[in-house]
Design a protein that fits this description.
Elements: H1 6-29, H2 33-78, H3 84-101
Length: 103
């Protein structure tokens, strides 16, 4: 699969954020409030990055759904009278769908 796997990236970043929160708690319990504040900022940054990746994952899913709907509609509209160009175009889109789905 080409491109960024946004779900995977969001998952990794969330784990990094959770680790930062654990370190924040540890530093806070030790009274090292400056370090705790730094880890809090890191965790907040992780949540923001993870949200961006999650949003991009939804956008990609929407794009794939639109491609599937387009191919279904175009195939039905063209029917048996498809030109070689139309068949090649729909085939190319179908390849994009398969790649995006990891097939």
């Amino acid at each position: 699969m080409t491109g960024v796997d946004h779900v995977h990236e969001a998952t990794l970043i969330l784990a990094e954020g959770e680790a930062a929160v654990e370190k924040l708690r540890d530093r806070h319990e030790r009274g090292d409030f400056d370090a705790a504040d730094d880890y809090g900022k890191k965790a907040a940054g992780c949540w923001t990055q993870a949200q961006a990746h999650a949003t991009l994952a939804l956008v990609e899913q929407h794009r794939i759904a639109n491609l599937i709907a387009f191919v279904a509609h175009a195939s039905a509209a063209v029917g048996d009278e498809a030109t070689p160009e139309a068949i090649a175009y729909l085939s190319a889109i179908t390849s994009q769908i398969r790649e995006a789905l990891g097939l």
